[in-house]
Amino acid sequence: MLPYGRQSINDDDVAAVTRALGSDWLTTGPEVDRFEESIAERTNAAHAVSATSGTAALHLAYAAAGVGPGDEVVTTPLTFVATAATAAVFGAKIVFADVDPKTGNLDPAAAEAAVTPNTKVIAGVDYAGVPVEADALRALAEKNDALFLEDAAHSIGSRRNGKPVGSLAHMTSFSFFPTKNLTTAEGGALVTDNEELATRARRFKNHGLVRDKELQRYPDEGPWHQEVHSFGINYRLPDVLCALGSSQLQRLESFVARRAEIKRIYDEALANLDGVDIPFAPEGAEPAWHLYPLRVPAERRRAIFESLREQGIGVQVNYIPAYWHPVFEDLGYKRGMCPVAEDFYRREISLPMFPGLTDADVERVIKAVRKAVATA
């Protein structure tokens, strides 16, 4: 079975991890600092805070924003549930707004209609690696005294109007899961230019510990003393995984280039298939193409999906609208709230997309898609 995503590991990655394993620091050491500095530099951000997953990075973002009961978070339903869940666990109300029918990204006009005086965060997702309309969403957030969070789980290496993702929002979260554009096995990061937000995020990821004596309530207790002023969680990404991430970052541009080449080949082969829409990127967007979200006729999607699986093509669907999950259904959310996102979901199939795909693999996928669309 040809998977829809797969990590790209080479000897340099293995050597980097081996060196970290042989060092004095398996966690909270110099590889963490090195990786965070590299992420900040790559994204033109002042601060980077590593975390144990993309979900953890989102949780850090909402913690840094001070999200809590009575607050509202406006976001897209066309995302993995973590984008909304990590705010909901703080007691926030999630307000889902519809998406652009071409990109699947949060529609700024729909987001604006969803904003209320209680809006604390507007969270856009770079679906498939296509950057959101960051200028519009950031301006909307600032107009309403809110923060703009860019969930860039799909898009490290992407750019918009020449600027790297990570430099466009008040806060940007990344995922380094194995299928993403680079990996630390499990891992993520939050980047921001705001020092106060970075400090809050860094503290939350380390149990809420305060070690600075000038900030402690009882600074004279002893040199060992540390305090917790607000609750946090252990989201520390260890040195071993940060070493892998630093090694992977050195190949990010080649990963992005290969994904773009695969996307071009798919586009040329599939653009004229009846009833099929290929992925779209607006002018000014340079996506890293984490996914290749092909859209097929909704009434035939399942048959096409099953045909591809039977042919050994490990396709996926991204994503079930977040409010379709029973946890949101039980809170009163109803299907039909965001019809554009729901239509996008009903038609979407993610084809294999990762740098290790050979040209022969890509041709195999194309042949299988043509057969599935013609016969399913």
Automatic annotation (TrEMBL):
Q: What sections of the sequence does the record tag as coiled-coil?
A: none
Specify the protein name: UDP-4-amino-4, 6-dideoxy-N-acetyl-beta-L-altrosamine transaminase
The text of the family note is: Belongs to the DegT/DnrJ/EryC1 family.
For the keyword Transferase, the answer is: yes
| PANTHER family, alphabetized | DTDP-4-AMINO-4,6-DIDEOXYGALACTOSE TRANSAMINASE (PTHR30244:SF34), TRANSAMINASE (PTHR30244)
Q: Where are the transmembrane segments?
A: none
The record's section on InterPro entries has: DegT/StrS_aminotransferase, PseC, PyrdxlP-dep_Trfase, PyrdxlP-dep_Trfase_major, PyrdxlP-dep_Trfase_small
Q: Name one Pfam family in it.
A: DegT_DnrJ_EryC1
